[in-house]
Amino acid sequence: MESQSRNVWIKEGDPSKLGALYKDGYEDILEERRHTSDFRWCTRSRNVQFYQYRHPRNPKQIKDSVLSSDRVQYAIEQVIQESGTTPEETENQVHSILDEMAHNLNLSSVRCLAYVLTKIIKRLYRRIYVNEEGIDTVRTLIKEYPVLLMPSHRSYTDFLVMSYLFYHYDLPLPVIAAAMDFMGMKFVGTLLRNCGAFFIRRSFGSDKLYWAVFTEYVQTQMCNGDAPVEFYVEGTRSRTSKSLSPKIGMLKASLEPYFKAHCPDIMVIPITVSYDRILEENLYTYELLGVPKPKESTSGLLKARSILSEDFGNIHICLAPPISIRTFSEGKINRHIHSLSPRYIASLTKDEEVLLKDLAFVVILTQQKHAVISPWALIASVLMQKTNGVQFEELVKDVEWLKRQASNCGAYVDWPGNESPEHVIRTRLLFHSNKLTISDEDLVELKQISPPSHVDNKTSKDTIISTAAMHVMTSLYRNQLLHVFVRIAMVTIPVNSCLQETLSINSLFEQYTFLETILSREFIFQPGKTREDFNKVLVLLQHAGGLVIDEERNIKIKQSVNKYTTFMSIMFKPFLLGYWVVCQYLLSLAGGNLDARPLARKAKQMRIETQQLILGLLSEGIIKHYEILSLDLIGNALDSLVDMGVISREKRIQDIYFVPQCAKVSRIAAKIESMTEVPATHITDFSTFIIRTVTAKL
Amino acid sequence: MKKTGAKIFKEVNVVDCGSQTDRKISMEEKAPTIPKRRQELLKWNGWGYKDSKFIVNKDEHVEFTGDRYKLSGHVMPSLREWMIKTIGISLDHRVQSQPELTAADIPAPIKNEAFLHDLRNARISHSDDSQDRLFRAHGHTLHEVFILREGRFSRIPDLVVWPTSHDEVIKVVELACKHNTVIIPFGGGTSVSNAIECPKHETRMITSLDTSQMNKILWIDEKNMTAHCEAGIIGQDLERRLDEKGFCTGHEPDSMEFSSLGGWVATRASGMKKNVYGNIEDLIIHLKMVTPRGVIEKSCQVPRMSSGPDIHHFMLGSEGTLGVVTEVTLKIRPVPTCKKYGSIVFPNFEQGVDCLREIAKQRCAPASIRLMDNEQFQFGHALKPDTSTLFSSFVDGIKKLYITKIKGFDLTKIAVATLLFEGTSDEVASQEKRVYEIAANFGGLPGGEENGERGYMLTFVIAYIRDLGFEYYVVAESFETSVPWDRVLDLCRNVKDRLHRECKDRGIQFPSFATCRVTQTYDSGACVYFYFAFNYRGLTNPVKVYEEIEASARDEILANGGSISHHHGVGKLRKKWLPQTIGDHGTGILKAIKEYIDPDNIFGSDNLVSML
Lengths: 698, 612
What we know:
The complex is a heterodimer of chains A (698) and B (612).
Chain A: E1 22-23, E2 26-28, H1 38-43, H2 59-67, H3 70-83, H4 87-101, H5 107-124, E3 127-131, H6 132-144, E4 147-151, H7 157-168, E5 175-179, H8 188-194, E6 197-200, H9 208-224, E7 229-230, H10 249-259, E8 267-275, H11 281-288, H12 298-303, E9 314-319, E10 323-324, H13 325-329, H14 350-369, E11 372-373, H15 375-385, E12 390-391, H16 392-408, E13 412-413, H17 421-431, E14 436-438, E15 443-446, H18 457-461, H19 463-497, E16 502-504, H20 505-518, H21 530-544, E17 554-556, H22 557-560, H23 563-588, E18 601-602, H24 603-619, H25 631-643, E19 647-652, E20 655-660, H26 662-675, H27 683-697
Parallel strand pairs in A: 3-9, 4-7, 4-8, 5-6, 5-7, 11-13
Antiparallel strand pairs in A: 1-2, 2-3, 8-9, 8-10, 12-15, 14-15, 16-17, 18-20, 19-20
Helix pairs in contact in A: 2-9, 3-4, 3-9, 4-9, 9-10, 10-14, 11-19, 15-16, 15-19, 19-20, 19-23, 23-25, 23-26, 23-27, 24-25, 24-27
Chain B: E1 24-25, E2 54-56, E3 62-64, E4 74-76, H1 79-87, H2 113-121, E5 126-127, H3 130-135, H4 142-150, E6 159-161, H5 166-179, E7 182-186, E8 206-210, E9 217-221, E10 226-230, H6 235-244, E11 247-248, H7 261-267, H8 274-277, H9 280-283, E12 284-291, E13 294-296, H10 312-315, E14 324-331, E15 333-334, E16 338-346, H11 349-361, E17 368-372, H12 374-382, H13 396-404, E18 415-423, H14 425-441, E19 445-446, H15 449-471, E20 474-484, H16 488-505, E21 513-521, E22 525-535, H17 542-559, H18 578-597
Parallel strand pairs in B: 6-8, 7-8
Antiparallel strand pairs in B: 1-9, 2-3, 3-4, 5-6, 9-10, 10-14, 11-15, 12-13, 12-14, 16-18, 16-19, 17-18, 17-21, 20-22, 21-22
Helix pairs in contact in B: 2-5, 11-14, 16-17
């Protein structure tokens, strides 16, 4: 080594001795904290650059400007006229809404939290990787335009990590739209407020005052660029690790100022926070199975202390290239339409709303694109198909194969290039040893997980529930990969189930469209892009998946059924099966008689009854996919059927009831049957089955 | 083009308005200031008089030549640095204008011999001299001046006629109709909307109808306080000659040195002092317009009447598409006894705008009130001449204030309002008091008379300085809009941001310069005026790039609730935004009027709405 002449300019010649501070455009922001004083870091002076047109304001001044704004004053007058409340009452209402909502961002609280947080984060995580290019872009942008941060939402940690990141890089600290869940927590609520969280009710329907205060509060901060505004377009933490369909209320409120020409542009920054291991994996698993989550409380938080002794690996934060709303809407929207009425009265036009919905999908798809796939997600995907265990050697082979397929589809896999595949996989298996065992014969198998403390004894002892928990928890990680392959599977499923020798592209597209429609609550598809997606996937499959298309544009089935297509189809089979069972449940509500009027049920009741039915089917061994027990899947299926008009919603007194239209349901069930294997059971069996299981439960 | 300010003349006559008895005064004839052969006095490829221009002298300092203006003969020591710093010019990189175009460089005239024959018989002065035609081929948009400096016109007028009276105009229009030739009326040539540019594909003979020889004030009616003038009279002559009799119209667009009364009517002009005197539409009592259908005029000269839609409004802003304005009866006022400038310094532009809005709300605006943003203030700073005592306190005044009174004002944030008061000295004193009181509520401090006066000088200087910019690869232009009060700030910020961003996106290597001022106030809104310049070194097609950027700025203006134009007009430059501004039926009405008045498109300038 010493004799190598390159040593003149090489600092560390042995690659195995290189640290992991930098890799592939990412930089670890925790490393530095491990060597320097946390105290000094938290008290250091910060040189922060703000939006160029910002007038500095404190949280109190922001609130005052909301109160005196035209929009809020106008709403107050309206409410006084409509409901006859006195001006004082109404003003007081506004005050209390605003007090409930507003953040109280101040640097001293942030410094305190930063201190504690550093200590905690260093214990929980090994490294927090951030893409440096993204930070550089944000740093310049923040001076030029108001910035909207839109991170993915998988964990409570997202919020803390994001603020921590902005503190680390001397960027202006974001203000974050949070759900009301935390607000009730003693001390913690206040602390979060002081660190920039502001609280929004989940629904506020036609409450004019609330609308006005909320809109003004968000917009005044957007326009003045007091701070970057951060919110979760998915609305809530995704318990399944799959992206959730976007909620566009907050997006509308934050981007409206651009359409009303209050500001020159707004920069939307999609951000993906990827976790090696999710802090809430246990809680999510049981929540998905129907064990209610404990209410957010400070004492609950303290109880969760034990988690501090565990290792959650790395976090990857990727700030995607910004989307300028000006560029995004160029040529599609003419803003002059808002010239004819005061800007605080009029709302967005239909076209603008459609555009923003489109944007919301683009943001989520961008988040997916920049997700960092951990090797464990690949392992989990293989294990989910081998629930009886798999030999380590075979696992390595399959994972390596899958890694290549994921990369071919454009996914970013966090695979250390300087380690052997065996080493990579074995370290990941050990890292997730709470979920699996490796026998002396090197057989890798999922194992029962220990339930969180709030799960009662009876539930945790239930063998079906605990098997399901084991599967569901692993599925959380496999799910990280699904968005990469879902469009492919939507082609391979019809191909693999085709009984003819050839399948025309047109009928394939028809089936693809059907799958996209029915799965649109489960996965994210950009509306209006079906054909484009389909064409892309066909090319990809021809190049990488062995799909054979002849000159007449027909798929040659025999040649096209292979390991690749089969693997993809099997990966998504549980979803189809789950949707099929939901259909069977709905049919059973009419006793199997397609012409009979089925019983109406509330949505929640439907979910629970379907889950019961699945529980029964699992215990009788009729189906074997335990993950179907997930309430999320059942709920998605029901919602999607509502979207498709297969279930109609009826309002009775206060509540919404779901009424299935059996003929349509049965058509859908039949379509699913034609694409995947289902148990050979009759609908009538199901109805008696349900009666049996439901009464048994009672 | 509304460029030149009020105090541009070397001497300002404040004539005491005598106490004559009311009578009708007839005026003697005088030759117009701008001669028939414009090229003898005016630049052929730039703005204004030949003798007045910015040059870089042997010491590499910027100097303004001539003896005509207050700034003439002075050196502005900090202007060079400002130009280097703000727009990135380099004295080493110069681009010269092409030599004066000769007859060979100019398209040969299309001749309709029959028309020419009839014209000769009618004894109406005309010329097909190439220089005469070239001088009437263009206005003063960047595009047009750039062609003069570096390019060739593909279509220019084939003939220039100089009718000397309403009746001669009738004759010319009759002949044009008879022989199917095109007429494009020409007044002062200060258009900034491409309105006098010849349509490229026009194959008929185009006659430029120069109104400059119709420059008489036919009579002044003291009892009714009106003056009846021929429409070719230019602003400075009109005011000077009225002044001799103790009157004024008070209509002072920045271009008044060159622009004509008929041009004001045809473009819906606006004067700096409209707060006291009104805009052109408020000043007009009677109009005569010669059209292919015949003469349009009302039969009485009343202050107001209810007689269906006002036919004056078909003519106002018709931009030469319907006919030629030949005679105008205008309101006049006695020359005010007291004229006083003033200025207010605000901590920032926002507070300045709030203050102007309050002044407008209280309806106590002085004759003129303008608010410059910080960039424009800095620009004014850079124009400080070296020696003159007149200018000694140019910005020093503000600096002194800054040190003594307004500590905490940030010189990179302040905005300056310039004021012009008119009336009796008592009136002026009470107006001043009220305005400064309101300003104080918005953090504004009086900044002295001289700063005010200089602010108005700036507007005319800018017109000349563009020609210096051209020499150093800088293209510059101004454009304007009107906008409701609630959107003024957003519009100013967003448009400037858009300009800078479009420059960046187009790979312009140097910092761009964008500045604005609120230049007129109304009860419900304001007029905002933008200046924009960038250094195009490295670009192959600066004019095209400039035009794209200006178009995006206009899009931005409309998106911000602003208008297509406050007083520059539509011409050909802004045609594409007219339908969205006035709607399909609005354009339908314009077309229907055109169809009735001028079915053969004799007035074929193709402004406003295309008839095809």
